[in-house]
Specification:
4-stranded antiparallel beta sheet; 119 residues; 7-stranded mixed beta sheet
Length: 119
């Protein structure tokens, strides 16, 4: 079993920045892949970025590339999503997820953290 805990969400003004964190515990290793998704009310869940727990192989969705970046701290089993130049349309629940290097599906999810961007 793997547990994921997100933190760092909150209210920010448009144009501002926020960094949210996802800490993994349980049966993980550095090859586990950690992803960030978001879902706004009435919208489909959207993939944002992914990285290995080791901090290697970052991947950021084109829709947020240039504004969002992902990084990892292997020693802390934590992955960060840095969000800059935030827009009101970035308002959503942000969730992290993880899977082993051999899995093809995202197997474990955190509870999510709310990010609200005011205009």
């Amino acid at each position: 079993q793997v547990q994921l805990v997100e933190s760092g969400g909150g209210l920010v003004q448009a144009g501002g920045s926020l960094r949210i964190s996802c800490t993994a515990s349980g049966r993980t290793d550095s090859n586990y892949r950690v992803g960030w998704f978001r879902q706004a009310p009435g919208k489909r869940r959207e993939f944002l970025a992914a990285i290995s727990l080791s901090g290697s192989s970052p991947n950021v969705a084109d829709s947020v590339k240039g504004r969002f970046s992902i990084s990892g701290d292997n020693a802390k089993n934590t992955v960060y999503l840095q969000m800059n130049s935030l827009k009101p349309e970035d308002t959503a629940v942000y969730s992290c997820t993880t899977r082993s290097s051999t899995s093809t599906t995202w197997d474990y999810w955190g509870q999510g953290t709310q990010v609200t961007v005011s205009s």
